[in-house]
Amino acid sequence: MTSHRLAVALAVALAACGAGAVGAQERPAAEKAKGPPADREPVVSVTRHSGLFGGQRVAYTATAGETFLRAEDGTARASIFSVSYVREPRDPRRPVTFLFNGGPGSGSVWLHMGAFGPRRVAIPSNGTDDGAPPYPIVDNPDSLLDVTDLVFIDPVGTGFSHALGDTNPADYYGVTKDAQSVAQFIRLWLNANGRWNSPKYLGGESYGTTRSAAVLNQLEGTFNDVALNGVILISTVLDFGAGADTPGNEMTYVLNLPSMAATALYHGKAQAPSVEQFVAEARRFAMGPYAHALLQGNALPADERASVRRELARFTGLSETYLEQADLRVAPSRFYKELLRDRGLTIGRLDARYTGRDYDNAGETPDNDPSFFGIDGGYTAAINQHLRETLGFSTDRAYVTIGQVGPWDWRLGGGRDNDVYVNVAPYIGRALRENSGLRIFVGQGYYDFATPFFAAEYALSRTGIPSDRIHYEYYGSGHMMYVRDEDRAKLSRDIRAFIRGG
């Protein structure tokens, strides 16, 4: 992937981590061309398989195909592509889990072919590049099919999903619009499969956690409730205001510091007995002396500044000289370039275990994210082979792993403040208060700068969000913790226990 293409892809796929511009914009006329005709039947392929998952032999039916979202007059407006894996014989009281990725322009390929699907792509587990094809596609004993049926959803503009006829794709490009369409799909799936009284779970990764909160609000925030048993948040981003890397926002430095500490320790730039102990110290320092110093701004006393600078150097592995030049505020993009500059290396944003080598060593920020170009080839090949060959889904469309689904409408409604400070965590708080059976699982990688673990903890610890039904697990990798074999197995065990605990 060229630098330009990767930059565009990352800007779209990881918009969840930079918040972007708030508000809808008019799409260029060229992007309003008609989609495929709406007067055809959905394309669906049904196949039967079996596999060993969680130590159990499971026979299951795979349904790969389109579901049409229709207007009130019956006109098909959009095609949602999904893959359902349902255990046989069917049990209407068995749990079902709806899964999607983020972006907001990402298909569900990552969770599907990396974590929970019955087959997965085997790429290097140690933070190195996936190289060139062929990539091994293997049985996945870590799939959750022993405890839940699985439905992988590609929202409009991702995967094979697209607008139909005269429908403007922008009608689906926004926090609320997207959530409404996914909620509509879920209701249709429950109708078609007779699963209204099944235990139900939502699961999302990255912006998919934002989508999970927004879909939860659509399903439970109306009179026609679809009550859920659990929400699975993987690499969580909910409060875009607090995490925005923008001048004047001091919280972003506070929330990124524990991830910097974990990364410095991993690469030998800091010393501590364990990552768990070191990030616990970093949390206390970040919310205490560091936050106190930053909030004083230019009034920070010299002696307090010197003390904070020394501790900041200990946690980040950066020199006091550099930290002073940065005014004690190191943006993540600078950290990726500076931490290993003495080795001529940069570190990854999605997963800071990965390292890369730039065109030269003099720049302020990296040329690229080595933790993205280290995995994308294998996943793209795997999803296309699996869908087209193993599951027999036939289409001339290209599968959009990461695409341009913008401009994205970030408005939540409810007034100017809601639309400027985008935060969907209150949706989760309300649902927990109004559904006594709802539980939340939060899985975070220590080396993830796209959605830092401390930012997730902060967002879910605010007033109005009951904490007694929120469960956290941590992993020794980054944004996509399942690329590391040990963490994929742990994630599977953790979520399996979460579902069984319901």
Structure report:
The protein has 502 residues and is α/β, with parallel strands linked by helices. It has two domains: 40-241 and 375-500, Rossmann fold (3-Layer(aba) Sandwich); 251-371, no CATH class. It has 15 helices and 14 strands. The protein has helices spanning 3-13, 109-116, 175-193, 207-220, 251-266, 275-296, 302-316, 320-325, 332-338, 370-373, 376-390, 416-420, 425-434, 453-459, 485-500, and strands spanning 44-53, 56-70, 76-87, 96-100, 119-121, 137-139, 149-154, 162-163, 200-206, 230-236, 346-347, 355-356, 439-445, 470-475. Strands 1, 2, 3, 4, 7, 8, 9, 10, 13 and 14 form a ten-stranded mixed β-sheet that branches. A two-stranded antiparallel sheet has the order 5-6. A hairpin with a 5-residue loop joins strand 2 and strand 3. The radius of gyration is 22 Å and the shape is globular.
List unreliable stretches of 5+ residues.
1-33
CATH topology of the largest domain: Rossmann fold
- What's the CATH architecture of the largest domain? 3-Layer(aba) Sandwich
**Shape type:** globular
> How many structurally independent domains?
2
Order of helices and strands: HEEEEHEEEEHEHEHHHHHEEHHHHEHEH
Biggest beta sheet attributes: 10 strands, mixed
Q: Care to count the β-strands?
A: 14
Mean pLDDT: 91
CATH class of the largest domain: Alpha Beta
Tally of alpha and pi helices: 15
